[in-house]
Design brief:
The protein is mainly α. The protein is built from six helices and no strands. It has one domain. Helix 5 packs across helix 6.
Length: about 100
């Protein structure tokens, strides 16, 4: 698992201007909907699941933390995502919420 995480972080392109440039945000949105990610987030945030991404005390503060959180959430959702799917999901979340450069 540690080796996979290291490879995933390398693919995130942390040296690039766009940290998830190899991901496709549109495909990430489809995965977000397919695995009903906001179903869990809605419960945590009292109804507005997207607020989990923009709250002042959010856990994710950089691209590496986003990559790590995607692994945690995928495991919790029992989603067996490929490396590309994780990049796609990260690209979607970054484009729409985090805006990491």
């Amino acid at each position: 698992m540690k080796k996979f995480f290291a490879i995933f972080l390398l693919l995130c392109g942390t040296a690039q201007a766009e940290p998830f440039a190899d991901g496709q945000a549109e495909a990430g949105k489809k995965l977000f909907d397919k695995y009903q990610c906001n179903r869990c987030h809605n419960g945590k945030m009292g109804g507005d699941g997207n607020a989990i991404f923009t709250r002042p005390d959010r856990k994710v503060k950089d691209p590496q933390q986003l990559a790590a959180q995607i692994l945690v959430c995928a495991r919790n959702a029992r989603a067996n995502l490929s490396t590309q799917e994780k990049l796609d999901l990260a690209a979607y979340l970054n484009k729409n919420f985090y805006k990491f450069k």
